[in-house]
Write a structure and sequence with these properties.
This protein is α/β, with parallel strands linked by helices. It is 31% helix and 27% strand. The protein has ten helices and 16 strands. The longest helix has 21 residues.
């Protein structure tokens, strides 16, 4: 089968021919139809992600496809079933073996491309805003990096949860995408003084940050007393150093969110979250925004789009 593999950290991936894996106990073998790309794929390719597999390995954290075969002790899935899964790696290949516990049935009306773009982005935003920050109707939510794959879903979910949403992104074209997802206030991160703009808007209650760097610190200074700041990622490359005195005097909370960590220690939280999200999709509330769909032999181009922050929403690779 074909597989897009990393053999040396820091070098581009290679499309190779490798054996088809055999599903082990509790695993299903999926014939991959689509694979969503994530910023974590870039971190893995450089060897800096917390769950980077040993070399060589196949990229691709989330997939959608059909069950090809079931390993021993698998119940609830049969060959031919349409499922989405989060293997963590290995998805950019014609076949991938995945624990059955990480597979979910794809709802009627959802395409493979939509399913491959759905779990990590929407799951991260929902878990952060609902389970961790306890976002309330009427609160003001700031989303930094609001046009990215995860940020855009935070705009959409935050709006559905009843928040007033401020979107910060680079350039008017990207802000227009955030506006279509439901943002109430738009701030161009290239031109605006973020702290002053946020204070002019009355401050914020919850900050959802996938970018890091100076923007986080500016948002921190515009957060209202008892506000919550969600650290979801550092796509800008700079991990902010947080002045604890500001947390003290304003009674602020800084909250970390690593969606994949829940797979190990509280998988039932992810299951409940995903059930609600698929229900919202079925009700027409969520509309996945996919900016690029590329074939496997152009997957490296998709990673370049993420690296250069040139994509809005998700980039998905298809495997016919």
């Amino acid at each position: 089968m074909r597989a897009l593999q990393i053999s040396t950290f820091g070098l581009p991936p290679d499309l190779r021919t490798v054996p088809v894996p055999d599903p082990g106990p509790g695993e299903v073998l999926l014939r991959t139809a689509a694979c969503g790309l994530n910023f974590a794929d870039l971190l893995m390719s450089g060897g800096s992600y917390q769950d980077t597999p040993p070399l060589p390995f196949t990229l691709g954290m989330e997939v959608a496809g059909t069950v090809e075969a079931c390993g021993p002790a698998v119940t609830g899935f049969v060959p031919g079933a349409r499922v989405a899964a989060v293997p963590g790696s290995g998805g950019l290949a014609d076949f991938v073996a995945v624990p059955a516990a990480r597979c979910v049935a794809i709802p009627d009306g959802m395409s493979f491309v939509q399913a491959a773009s759905f779990q990590i982005a929407y799951g991260t935003s929902h878990l952060a805003l609902d389970h961790r920050a306890r976002l309330q109707p009427g609160e003001t939510l700031l989303v930094l990096g609001a046009a990215g794959g995860v940020g855009l879903t935070a705009v959409e979910i935050g709006k559905h949860m009843g928040a007033r949403v401020i979107a910060s992104a680079r350039g008017q074209a990207r802000l227009a995408v955030a506006q279509r997802a439901g943002a109430d206030v738009l701030i161009d991160s290239d031109t605006a003084d973020l702290r002053d703009r946020l204070r002019a808007e009355g401050g914020v209650d919850v900050v959802f940050d996938t970018v890091g760097g100076p923007a986080f610190l500016q948002a921190l200074r515009a957060t209202r007393p008892e506000g919550r700041l969600l650290c979801v990622g550092f796509a800008g490359g700079d991990v902010p150093q947080i002045p604890a005195n500001l947390l003290l005097v304003k009674n602020l909370s800084v909250i970390g969110l690593y969606w994949g960590g829940y797979l190990a220690f509280r998988p039932e939280v992810l299951t409940a979250s995903m059930s609600r999200l698929f229900g919202w999709f079925g009700d027409g509330i969520l509309r996945p925004h996919i900016s690029h769909v590329l074939p496997l032999d152009r997957a490296a181009k998709g990673l370049d789009l993420l690296r250069g922050r040139k994509a809005t929403g998700k980039v998905v690779v298809t495997l016919p």
